[in-house]
């Protein structure tokens, strides 16, 4: 409750939120339908202030608001429509967000770019699948990360990575090689059949994307990028394609599939299915995936094979200290930052932590070195092998000191997780 214009204005956050789907039809003049409101939903605020029903009130208004599946707003310039800017899905936090959102959108419209990093709410992390109503339903299913994790440690997991976006880049001459060399931080000239991890940089040398590239021919490449970076990646590539349009950039996500076969017994399983070397195995078309999957699941029973998902893969990534774009690095991070002497990426194992009662770290928690702030947690997960929470984050040193192995080890670190 807060004071506004001489009146007390209560904010009623109900224990049992109520929402109703509003039907809209395409029309030149969009009008939000009037909805009858059940004012009994405000009983929670009345419980706290019994005099409220007898008090004089200003007119009560019931209005509609927009919500998103992950509870975050969506904003930025649309990748599909030029000069179309979006700031929507405030999830009832519009008043609190209006200053920052307005500043960001105004700066983006005026300058064409901004120094702020808003990837978690960037509309370009969405794909067409996210517009389907069932998307939210599928997101709410329970998953057993521990079961999938242990199966991988002791046997074999299969992870369907087909949703990763795949683009072919090819040309009749060196133009595609020169194009990629301008955008990427690595030397693009590598042997055919090589699979390489590359970083795509922007004009300020920060990470625009990180993805994988498969060398199919001298002037023929397959670019594989995580689903959440799909829209952003293709927008960036098409924006920088040479004007002579000598580079073909078809989306080949549908024709090709990807199955990750991982685990301590994965090599044994694959050796029983084929005598070929899988080190140079570049791609598989969708017409064979069901047959291959059935063979894996049938032959893999002896190894305890099961299906695994994103959160299990994420746990292994954090355990092995693999950085992820959007979580650990963003457009402000440069390759220089990751190797500089005053800024280093560190893995932390939490001690004095009660798994059952203490809050879990997620990301954004401040890190303290000998009582002084030195950085933030960027990723976190529970390590089932160690039985501990594992956090990744950058440790920064004052300009007067250089980070060495001894600097990291000879110190006491604390992570502030919701003030604990």
Roughly what fraction of the amino acids lie in strands?
15-25%
Shape: globular
**Biggest sheet: strand arrangement:** 14-17-16-15-18
Query: What does the average pLDDT come to?
Result: 80
Distance between the termini: 27 Å
**Helicity level:** 10-25%
Uncertain regions spanning at least 5 consecutive residues: 13-19, 24-28
How many structural domains?
A: 3
Domain GCVT N-terminal: 144-285, 290-339
Domain Aminomethyltransferase C-terminal: 358-404
Family: Belongs to the GcvT family.
Give a written overview of the molecule:
The protein is α+β, with helices and mostly antiparallel strands and 420 residues long. It folds into 3 domains: 2-125, no CATH class; 164-252, Alpha-Beta Plaits (2-Layer Sandwich), CATH 3.30.70.1400; 324-415, Aminomethyltransferase beta-barrel domains (Elongation Factor Tu (Ef-tu), domain 3). Helix content is 24%, strand content 22%. It is built from 11 helices and 18 strands. The chain has helices at 43-48, 94-111, 134-139, 145-154, 175-183, 230-240, 266-273, 289-299, 310-319, 335-339, 405-409, and strands spanning 2-4, 7-9, 74-77, 85-88, 157-160, 165-170, 195-201, 207-217, 220-225, 256-257, 259-262, 284-285, 306-308, 343-349, 366-369, 372-383, 388-396, 413-415. Strand 8 (207-217) and strand 9 form a beta hairpin. 19% of the residues are buried.
């Amino acid at each position: 409750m807060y004071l506004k214009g001489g009146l007390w204005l209560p904010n009623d956050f109900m224990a049992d939120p109520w929402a109703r789907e509003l039907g809209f039809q395409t029309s030149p003049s969009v009008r939000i339908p009037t909805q009858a409101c059940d004012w009994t939903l405000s009983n929670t605020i009345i419980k706290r202030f019994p005099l409220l029903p007898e008090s004089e009130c200003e007119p009560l208004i019931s209005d509609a608001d927009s919500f998103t599946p992950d509870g975050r707003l969506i904003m930025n310039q649309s990748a599909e429509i030029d000069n179309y800017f979006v700031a929507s899905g405030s999830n009832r936090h519009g008043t609190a967000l209006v200053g920052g959102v307005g500043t960001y959108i105004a700066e983006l419209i005026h300058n064409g770019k901004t120094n702020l990093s808003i990837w978690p709410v960037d509309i370009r992390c969405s794909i067409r699948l996210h517009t389907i109503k069932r998307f939210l339903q599928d997101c709410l299913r329970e998953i057993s990360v521990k079961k999938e994790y242990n199966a991988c440690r002791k046997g074999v997991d299969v992870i369907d990575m087909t949703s990763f976006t795949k683009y072919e880049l090819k040309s009749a001459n060196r133009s595609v090689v020169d194009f990629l060399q301008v955008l990427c931080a690595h030397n693009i000239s590598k042997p055919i059949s090589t699979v390489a991890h590359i970083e795509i940089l922007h004009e300020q040398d920060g990470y625009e994307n990180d993805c994988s590239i498969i060398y199919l021919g001298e002037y023929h490449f397959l670019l594989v990028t995580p689903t959440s970076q799909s829209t952003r990646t293709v927008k960036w590539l098409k924006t920088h394609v040479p004007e002579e349009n000598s580079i073909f950039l078809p989306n080949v996500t549908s024709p090709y599939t990807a199955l990750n076969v991982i685990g301590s017994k994965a090599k044994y399983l694959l050796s029983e299915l084929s005598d070929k070397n899988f080190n140079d195995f570049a791609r598989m078309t969708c017409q064979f995936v069901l047959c291959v999957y059935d063979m894996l699941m049938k032959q893999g029973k002896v190894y305890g094979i099961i299906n695994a998902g994103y959160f299990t893969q994420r746990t292994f990534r954090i355990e092995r200290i693999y950085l992820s774009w959007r979580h650990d690095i963003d457009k402000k991070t440069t390759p220089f930052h990751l190797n500089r002497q005053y800024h280093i990426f560190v893995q932390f194992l939490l001690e004095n932590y009660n798994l059952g009662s203490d809050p879990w770290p997620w990301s954004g928690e401040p890190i303290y070195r000998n009582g002084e702030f030195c950085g933030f947690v960027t990723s976190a997960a529970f390590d089932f092998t160690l039985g501990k929470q594992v956090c990744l984050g950058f440790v920064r040193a004052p300009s007067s000191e250089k980070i060495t192995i001894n600097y990291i080890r000879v110190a006491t670190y604390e992570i502030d997780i919701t003030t604990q």
